[in-house]
């Protein structure tokens, strides 16, 4: 019920914690292992696109491959010098900080090349953050685009809950992120109702467990 006040307080706490400008502008969070599977070239593009659209971006994650880690260290140094009040890359594993990012971000970007299930988008929704995802695997199963997926969501007994894109190129990220950020700027009331909606959706085991039980009893007959 108090999603607007709650998200505002969380965003201010996140901005203060990371030394970002205290401002009511769209904030994109990225919480990910930095591996090829997670679409690192799309993550980088998403960072620059967010900054181009006058947003803030926070990334939390680290790379098992030292070359990729080093690449992101260089990007972090560049951004912290050129966009110090709008971008923060935390290249480590930090569980408590991840929760603050989920809570304080308006959007969580998940541009994975493949994703069997994906928990990031589900956690994001519980925190009232809108997922911006690539249409693949579990991301496609759980995120229904507000413009394109109304019928597919209806068939699942759900309402649309995010922004998605095809392809694995910068144009795809632009397509989803531009719509998301424009919705934040141009329709705050609608956006706030979307945050409330995604928090209320049930992605627990409750429904699948009932489905399995029904299937089990049907098989026994």
From TrEMBL:
UniProt enzyme class: transferase
Subcellular location: Plastid, Amyloplast; Plastid, Chloroplast
Keyword Signal attributed: no
One GO cellular component term: amyloplast
Molecular function as annotated in GO: alpha-1,4-glucan glucosyltransferase (ADP-glucose donor) activity
UniProt keyword Chloroplast, yes or no: yes
Biological process according to GO: amylopectin biosynthetic process; starch biosynthetic process
Protein name: starch synthase
Species for this entry: Elaeis guineensis var. tenera
